[in-house]
Amino acid sequence: MRRPDMTPPQAGTKLPVSAAKRNPNWLGALAKFGVITGTALSAVGALAPTAAEAKPNTKIVIGRSIGGVSLGQTEAQVKQKVGKPTVKSGSNHGVNLAEWDYGGNPGNLSVAFGNIDEGVVLVEAHYKKYKTNKGVGIGSTLAQIQTAYPDAKCEFGSGPTGEAPDGPPTCVIQSEYKGGPAYTSFIQFPPVQGVGEIALSLTK
Description:
Helix content is 21%, strand content 27%. By secondary structure, the protein is of the alpha+beta class. The chain has two domains: 4-48, no CATH class; 53-201, protein yfey like fold (Sandwich). The strands form two sheets. An eight-stranded antiparallel beta sheet has the order 4-5-6-7-12-11-10-9, with helices on one face. The protein has a four-stranded mixed beta sheet with strand order 3-2-1-8. A hairpin with a 3-residue loop joins β1 (59-61) and β2. The longest helix is centred in the N-terminal third of the chain and has 9 residues, at 24-32.
């Protein structure tokens, strides 16, 4: 005999979203009894956050990727990793076909695409939680980066505001990418102490 509290709701009963989130197995039971349709199930499932929304990727892989966006990825692959951009624009670097910004301009993450067969050619990060597996990233000093990566080439700057001869103080790590070089740059903007931007690119 069915217990009173186990009687399934009648067809047409509205399902509270909060209940669906607390007990997703209930959805399958309701569908079995014909209370909700597959379309309704899909609608409730759409309420779940995407992977990018649930837990942003803040890893920096030297010479390969920042925040899950890798050199060479297509626009579709970037959307799959980090979703739709906040701002889409033409290039302001003069050589890239399109630039996407996430979280404003400059945003937490910026992505530039080259020719169709190149995909992503530049990724820039400004979010303080982006870190390498050695714990350096936004906010780290150039000295910390040089300690963590002895092969990094750093220009600390000697001018009155700390500028390097050819630009802001920077540490650059060169890696190999598809038979050519890739550069991971940690850039400081004096008088602010610590790295303010991290750029992964195919050119210096």
